[in-house]
Amino acid sequence: MSGNRFAARVDAIAAFQVMELMDRARRLEARGVDVVHMEVGEPDFISADPILEAGRAAISAGHTGYTSALGLPALRQAIAAYYGRWHGVALDPERVVVTAGASGALMLLAALLLEPGDGLLLADPGYPCNRYIPLFAGAQPQLVPVAADTAYQLDGAGVAAAWSAHTRGVLVASPANPTGSVLARKALLELIGQVQARDGWLLVDEIYQGLVYPAELEMLPDAARHGGVASDRVGSVLQLLTDAAAPVYVLNSFSKYFGMTGWRIGWMVVPEQAVAPLERLAQNFYIAPSSIGQHAALAALGDPAMVVHEQRRHAFCARRNLLVAGLRELGFGVPRVPEGAFYVYAELPEQLRARGSRAFCERLLDEHGVAATPGTDFGTYRAGDHVRFAYTADLARIETALERISAAMPT
User: Fold this and answer.
1) What is the mean pLDDT of each run of 10 residues along the chain (411 residues)?
2) CA separation for the pair 144, 166 (Å, rounded)
3) CA distance linking residue 56 with residue 47, whole number of Å
4) 382 and 239 within one domain
5) 145 and 286 share one domain
């Protein structure tokens, strides 16, 4: 019957394996099994107290109605001030668009920039939703394999080689999911130059901005810093732009560094001429971002909350160091220490690769109580050889996880 027919685009969207594994882990927990969660990219810290207090105050004050589709003016101004204080960027608040999470921002940008049949270059591996959302605009993700030799990032040469007659733009992430890699200044400048030369645009996903570990890299001195990446990073691509009309769009979020996953507040910084059409799209897509979430986000940018965010960043760094060292001892390949986010994209030891990462993750969960995400969730390039471990559990739980992973290794 025709009434049971769904749009063809639905068939192009694969299941989000990390969510399937999380559900599987919770079913085990319901039966009394202890599970170390290293699958979902969600910090184990709840939102900082100043954020919680601001959310309660917003409800008490009756701030429960619609806001502007572009977001609260006060929040747009506060975000612009954040770039000025922390990144030295003089940013016009009118270029800031507050969104219903970073995913909402990407949906708006896909609708704004992509026509049916257009191509969008993305790194493989990469966050799966970044390649699926453009499909709703009828566009085609063009996955470009990346590896440790380019810091798991697209570079200028890769873009030049992969650009086709249908390509309209490039989407990169820094820090990246699942690899935690960070784009260097030189690589960003090359990317900007490549898209400008082709009359395209660059979209930079910075939702893990703030979760970077510069000085702390000295705790793991190795090939992670080759190529000058550690000393040549920028806090935001906006630091490299002098022309407000440059074809660069920046995605960001209060979810990761600011610890507000469930509040669903993101933002983007866009060229001035893009603001009005984005406002129309937002009005029609979701009317406005969460009013309560926006008031809470104001507190997330304040000094009391920033102290908490920084303490947590250092905690994540210690977790990263423990996990990387432990995985390497067990024979996993980690050619580059992740410079940001809270993930390790580890290569399976050779004796485990025949069955692939999905089978390994299922056995690791079912038999040893550790939930991790197979590389097949993030692309196709050597995906079956890799597993993503999220260091969103505390040090004691990571120690437990490493003991259990060791028990899962073939003898």
Assistant:
1) 74 78 89 94 93 98 97 98 93 97 96 97 95 92 95 95 97 97 92 93 96 62 37 80 76 96 96 96 97 98 96 95 97 95 97 93 95 94 96 97 95 73
2) 15
3) 13
4) no
5) yes
